[in-house]
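Q: Got a minute? One more chain.
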Amino acid sequence: MARAKMPGLQLRGGIWWIWKQIDGYGRIRQSTGYGKDEYEKAEHFLIKRLNEIRDAQRFGIRPERVFRVAAAKFLMEQRHLSTIGDIATTFKQVDPWIGHLPLKSVHDGTLAPLVADWRTRELSNRTINIVLSRVRRVLRLAAMKWRDENNLTWLETPPLLTTLNERETQRVPYPLTWDQQRLLLAELPDYLHKMALYKVNTGCREQEVCLLRWDYEVEVPELSTSVFLIRSRTNSTSRVACSSQRVRPAASSSCSCSSLNSSRPSASRSRQSVLARSARVIRPHLRAAGTP
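A: Always. Here it is, folded:
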């Protein structure tokens, strides 16, 4: 005689789903992730889920959630951030290491293999610390903000994550010699040559050059020249960049777009995306030019 199946499981699209009403909790609609021929595994998953709910209701024991679920929740809540693409890339990179771990199991010990592996790839301590700070942010939200149906936070307490000493791998800035500048510019393709020429003459950062616009230009008739008022993306301040006769041809190539009333030429979206990758492209040319 065949064993009776446990109520609360339904086969939908070849996958066993939990479809059950629980008193004092509500209805559960959740995929077990197991296929048609894996009924016993799906049944064990259902029993585990019911025990988690019962423990949370009676004893205040938190259901177990993995870091991958918490990272997905963070991305949904913070999708308005301008850096959300970079954060999503970070979570994708750390997922093989900690994505499957319960939140309470993410700490210095479980992150140590990730940190050790990334240090062998010669990533700077600053880069690794940025990753750790994003992991820490998710854990803090899980412990201090996110709550479930039983008013329990996702995590009891956030762990203290150890950061690396950024000075150990920090590269000391130095000025290019005239010979190094000549060798570097000779190595670059035309569109990077003009951008680099503008950068070495103005000291502008990468994104300031990539996102330069003609409507940032302000005429200074007293000096028979003009300057660029580069607006900050994070606050209301602006920075002045010169537009001398030497760098004006380079500025013409660097400006990514123009105002609607401007007659200056503007670059296409595809060109702008190429300019935004200049930092990665320029590094091999720096090495070829003999710079450290």
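A: Residues 39-59 form the longest helix (21 residues).
Q: Perfect, thanks.
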